[in-house]
From TrEMBL:
Keywords: Antioxidant, ATP-binding, Disulfide bond, Nucleotide-binding, Oxidoreductase. CDD domains: Srx. It is an enzyme of class 1 (oxidoreductase). GO terms for biological process: cellular response to oxidative stress. ATP binds at residues 119-122. This is sulfiredoxin. It comes from Noccaea caerulescens. SUPFAM superfamilies: ParB/Sulfiredoxin. It catalyses: S-hydroxy-S-oxy-L-cysteinyl-[peroxiredoxin] + [protein]-dithiol + ATP = S-hydroxy-L-cysteinyl-[peroxiredoxin] + [protein]-disulfide + ADP + phosphate.
Length: 151
């Protein structure tokens, strides 16, 4: 069931990829025009979905923000505790090459450091593709939140 669901989701992403990229590009343009800059990063290399990095969320700083983060800024504390399915990583690499990353990985920001606990296959696919950044949904967290994820 999970595998069938995965392929259904990937196919849907391929079908809607162009529309979502156009929407993301328009959102980026609107952010630039309104000069909302809650946070910025110097980003080198190409974006994982072909669009310029988002520098702030549309919610005015409340709730999660979608940004392009450099891979080396994201700490992966559970990376060595499990191994990724290499077939899934290869499929994601093909998809990212063709239509870009459609679903950002979730990242928790605690005291200025970024921690990733999900999106392991997407993260590894970006590494293997040699991409410098990855699109992330960032949520602010506390040290207690971080401890909870490390259990």
């Amino acid at each position: 069931y999970k595998r069938e669901r995965y392929f259904f989701i990937r196919e849907r992403e391929r079908e809607t990829g162009r529309k979502e990229r156009k929407t993301a590009t328009m959102a980026n343009l609107m952010l630039r025009l309104t000069s909302i800059s809650l946070r910025s990063f110097s980003v080198s290399g190409s974006s994982s979905n072909g669009s310029p990095p988002v520098i702030g969320g549309s919610s005015g700083g409340v709730g999660p923000m979608i940004v392009e983060l450099p891979l080396e800024k994201i700490r992966r504390p559970l990376m060595r505790t499990r191994s990724n399915d290499q077939n899934k990583v290869k499929e994601l690499m093909d998809s990212i090459r063709q239509i870009g990353l459609q679903v950002p990985i979730d990242v928790i920001e605690v005291d200025g450091a970024y921690y990733g606990f999900s999106g392991c296959h997407r993260y590894e696919a970006h590494q293997k593709l040699g991409l410098q950044t990855i699109r992330c949904k960032i949520r602010k967290g506390t040290k207690e939140t971080l401890r909870h994820h490390l259990r």
